Amino acid sequence: MRKIYPLTLLMMVSASALAQSTPSSEDQGEEHTPPLRVGLGIVASDQGYAGQSTQITPFPLIDYEGHRFFVRGATGGAHLVKFDGVVIDAIVTAGFTSINERDFSRTDLARRGVNRDDLQDRKHSIDAGVAATWKSVAGQVRVVAKSDISGSSEGQEYSVEYGYPFHFAGFKITPSVGATFLSRKVADYYYGIHPQEVLRGVPAYEPGGSLISEVSVGLTRPIGEKWALMMSATYTSLPDKISHSPLVDSSHGSTVMIGFTRAF
Predict the structure, then answer these.
(1) pTM summary value
(2) Burial 134-162 (b: 16+ CB within 10 A, else e)
(3) Residue in 85, 180, 213 with CA at minimum distance from that of residue 138
């Protein structure tokens, strides 16, 4: 069975569900904001790798907001600066993605002239960097710059996201649009053919630096005093440089999540 690793799922869901739908560092001034929320979610995800089917996976939801430190799913960090709706954080987070070579479709790869046995694993990274968030009546903008510190890709990612939260029928709804630039090292590591694989006879392919765009919506609704329902959906558009990779059989990816959390 092909799968997306749980750590990757936590990263994707924490970005769209926890960062958007639950109270975050910018809300710390509100007295009713609970410092800790814990719950369980289920995610269905398809990231476009060759032969990869939609996967349904349960995972824990964790959101802790202290005066200085915080944890949101697979992201942890410290607030460095707060002023006039601006928050600047130092963060450590689970990286972009990962897939084991045996989780590719042997048949799909063969049609592209690739022997699955000649491939290597694409391991997840641990990234460190800085995130800046600005909130106003016009919405919220988040900019992130991070670099792999685990030795997987040894590359960088830069992202920007704009969201506009509003309330309707008891829900807090946050539609957003964003883009992420993958450095050459990151794009080549996850979507290209590695030098060792080329030596084994796999046709060379290096996408180089790539810009990935996405649209998403996050929803949350209180259930009583302690509980909350959370939902999110994300659609990712892959550029031609990535979708033309022999490791990829789609021009897009998608993730849908639903979960429940309890305040403590």
Answers:
(1) 0.85
(2) bbeeeebbbebbbbbeeebbebbbbbebe
(3) 85
Distance CA(105)–CA(222), nearest Å, equals 42
Contact 120, 198 (CB under 8 A): no
**Alpha helices by DSSP H, 40-94:** none
Q: Is 10 helix (H, G, I), strand (E, B) or coil?
A: helix
Say how far apart CA 188 and CA 95 lie, in whole Å.
15
- With 0-12 CB in 10 A as exposed, 13-18 as middle and 19+ as buried, what is 243? middle
CATH code for the domain in which residue 204 is found: 2.40.160
Number of domains in the chain: 1
The answer to whether the beta carbons of residues 8 and 43 sit under 8 Å apart is no
Token pair 């897009």 is found at 252
| Torsion on CA atoms 121, 105, 46, 92, rounded to nearest 10 | 0
What are the mean pLDDT values of the chain's consecutive 10-residue runs (264 residues total)?
Answer: 41 47 43 81 86 78 93 93 95 83 91 94 94 97 97 96 96 97 97 97 96 97 94 95 95 92 94
Q: What six digits make up the tokens of 113?
A: 């002239």
Domain that holds residue 244: 6-263
Q: What are phi and psi of 249, to 5 degrees?
A: -125, 20
> Which tokens sit at 123?
């391991």
Q: Is residue 1 in a domain?
A: no
In a domain, 95, yes or no: yes
Is 169 a domain residue? yes
The two three-digit tokens of residue 21, written as one number: 């739908």
* Token pair belonging to 128: 């460190």
